Amino acid sequence: MSAQSIEESTARPVARRAGGGGGLSLALAQGGIEFKQFVRTRESLVFTLLFPVMLMLIFGSIFGSVVITPPGEIPAVTLSQYFVTGMIASGIMATGFQNLAITIPIERDRGVLKRYRGTPMPKWVFFAGKILCVAALAFISVVMLLAVAVAFYDLRLPDTGQKWFTFGWVSVLGLIACTLCGIAFSGVAKTGRAGPAVVTPIALILQFTSGVFFEYDDLPPWMQQFAALFPLKWMCQGLRSVFLPESFASQEVAGSYELGKVALVLAAWCVGGLVLCLVGFRWTSKREG
């Protein structure tokens, strides 16, 4: 069965339930449909979930023995451990921003969004389904990345409740920001085919400038200032505070993890992403009007 036929056959049952049942049940049903469609599309499954793991294994193998902290009071941190925190943030960005910014234009091109809008189903249920699917995928991605990092790169899981709490709010705020930006950015690609060509370079640029593949404090100042405008840099910084020693904060550009600023910037992107969604989301392609 093709992805298009799956979308058509599964949209109707949820639409028929719009007249009855609670809003939560509709959202959960739509989320389940979105998740089934995702796992049945092998290309999306590999690119979104497995690609970050493959990158972690490749770069971790290359830089596994490189120590990036000088001897002294700061416990030794390897480049692979530093890189792992960035890949977790990248995994969250992939499930939120990249996934939605690529798949929504494809659905728009196939007329799926137009059919959804013509059903009795409330419009918010469609977005709730996307958000629930992304949340499930992000959870799976983070668990996979953590399992690989702990097994192969000696990454230590948070050992205090405060660090787990920080891990939670950084991940949730980052996921919300990336999800809303992905929905908003889905209107940029004129066709479904153009989605990957438009979105993938942006994701790569943000990864290279946000301290994922390289130490952030080694990047040129103009590149640091550019990355600081976007959520990924702050997600990486917040996750470093969770998985790296507290004394490593002195190696940050500001000399600390700046968790208050991390929360402020990510929350601002959540609000900004919501505004962009309300302004820029389109149910039909430009050629359809």
TrEMBL record:
| Bilayer-crossing regions | 45-68, 80-104, 124-152, 164-185, 197-214, 262-281
Predominant location: membrane
Q: Which PROSITE patterns does UniProt cross-reference here? A: ABC_TM2 (PS51012)
Membrane topology according to the record: Multi-pass membrane protein
Q: Where in the cell is it found?
A: Cell membrane; Membrane
Please provide the record's keywords in A-Z order. Antibiotic resistance, Cell membrane, Membrane, Transmembrane, Transmembrane helix, Transport
Alphabetically, the GO molecular function entries are: ABC-type transporter activity
Stretch list, region Disordered: 1-20
Q: Which InterPro entries match?
A: ABC-2_transporter, ABC2_TM, ABC2_TM_bact-type, ABC_2_transport
A Pfam cross-reference name: ABC2_membrane
GO biological process, alphabetically ordered:
response to antibiotic
Residues in ABC transmembrane type-2 domain copies:
43-287
One GO cellular component assignment for this chain's record is:
ATP-binding cassette (ABC) transporter complex
Please tell me whether the keyword Transmembrane helix is annotated for this protein.
yes
> PANTHER family annotated for this entry?
DOXORUBICIN RESISTANCE ABC TRANSPORTER PERMEASE PROTEIN DRRC-RELATED (PTHR43027), TRANSPORT PERMEASE PROTEIN (PTHR43027:SF2)
Q: Which family does it belong to?
A: Belongs to the ABC-2 integral membrane protein family.
Protein name (Swiss-Prot/TrEMBL): Transport permease protein
